[in-house]
Amino acid sequence: MRMSRERMFYLAEQMMKELAQVPGVVTRAPDDLRPEIIRVLSEESRIEETIDTEVRKTLGTYARPAPEGSREWEILYQKTREEVLKRRFRL
Question: What is the pLDDT along the chain (91 residues), one digit of tens a residue?
């Protein structure tokens, strides 16, 4: 699920605040750092969305599909998601 723009801005602000409190961490100006954090969050959100789509597509091809939301479906979703992550990122 994609994060809303407001959620990304909120998370970026929280991350900047946390980084500023870490001893030894020197941050750039907030106007330079915020867009970079938002870019990374957006990219991660897109990757998660494509992984979710691929997992759901795979689960939809099973001969006996489990009802979405059931315990069986959740287990299959997690296992398939792990397989997709391993295949994509060589984990």
Answer: 678 889 999 999 999 889 888 898 877 787 888 899 999 999 999 999 999 999 999 999 988 888 998 999 999 999 999 999 999 888 6
The string over 45-81, giving b where at least 16 C-beta atoms fall within 10 Å of a residue's C-beta and e elsewhere, is: eeeeeebeebbeeebeeeeeeeeeeeeeeeebbeebb
Q: Can you tell me the distance from the alpha carbon of 66 to that of 78, in angstroms, rounded to the nearest whole number?
A: 13
- Which DSSP letter does residue 39 get? H
Name 37's Cβ contacts closer than 8 Å, sequence gap at least 6: 11, 12, 15, 16
